[in-house]
Amino acid sequence: MSESDRPAVLLLRERFGSRPFRVSEAVQAGIARTTLHRLRQDGALAAPGRGVLQLPEGGVGLLSGLAVVSARVPCGTICLGSALAHWDLSDEIPAQVHIAVPRGAHRPTIEQPPTRVHVFAPETFGLDRQQARSDADEPFWIYSAERSVVDAIRMSRWVGRDLALHALRRYMTRGGSSPARLAELARELGGAARLQPALEALLS
């Protein structure tokens, strides 16, 4: 890396730290595309995904795939199997990153890391959407543990009924679990008919 590029790296480190960032974000921060290209060629920037860059000293966390996909899909939310794994509600490591986008939004195709994009209803898309951070302190958007359980139950055809019931069981055995919140979310999301029998079976 040349001395002339050092200020750009310092700016990127100050603005983004260890998290992945989109090329467009770096350009908005004042870094020229030609500079980004040169830094990548020199090894001063890594490219964990298409259109996504990262300072290599940030390391690659266990959950970096979620952050990389979130950087590629800023309007998206990590969901279903990926969200269950993040909240330790599943022992299964998904082969793909599952991310939801609201109906009508751009539905990207992402090959690295392998990603499956789901389309959710726009009127409930933001329900229990929250920001989390990977073990490398990279931010990403994800549904809460409660919504992840409800989504798994009501969309069991996508995650598998056994996995969905296991997630519900594990959630309910934790301290601070709230069946009332699950029921409330299920009503808002249209999944009450599926959740109620599963809850009753666990609580009986």
What are the low-pLDDT stretches, counting only 5+ consecutive residues below 50?
Answer: 59-63
Mean pLDDT: 85
Rg result: 19 Å
Task: Order the strands across the largest sheet as they lie in space.
Answer: 1-3-2
What fraction of residues sit in β-strands?
Answer: 15-25%
Distance between the termini: 65 Å
How many helical elements?
A: 10
For the report, how would you describe the main beta sheet? 3 strands, antiparallel
How many beta-strand runs? 8
Structural class based on helices, strands and sheet pairing? alpha+beta
String of helices and strands: HEHHEEHEHEEEEHHHHH
Please give the share of residues in helix: 40-55%
Shape: elongated
Quick description:
This protein has 204 residues and is α+β, with helices and mostly antiparallel strands. The chain is built from ten helices and eight strands.
List the helices and strands and how they pair.
Elements: H1 6-16, E1 21-22, H2 23-28, H3 33-41, E2 46-49, E3 52-54, H4 64-72, E4 77-78, H5 80-86, E5 97-102, E6 115-120, E7 129-133, E8 139-143, H6 145-154, H7 156-159, H8 161-172, H9 179-189, H10 192-203
Parallel strand pairs: 5-6
Antiparallel strand pairs: 1-3, 2-3, 4-5, 7-8
Helix pairs in contact: 5-6, 6-8, 6-9, 9-10
Q: Describe it for me?
A:
- The chain has 204 residues and is α+β, with helices and mostly antiparallel strands.
- It contains 10 helices and 8 strands.
- It has helices at residues 6-16, 23-28, 33-41, 64-72, 80-86, 145-154, 156-159, 161-172, 179-189, 192-203, and strands spanning 21-22, 46-49, 52-54, 77-78, 97-102, 115-120, 129-133, 139-143.
- A 3-stranded antiparallel sheet has the order 1-3-2.
- Helix 5 packs antiparallel against helix 6 (145-154).
- 38% of the residues are buried.
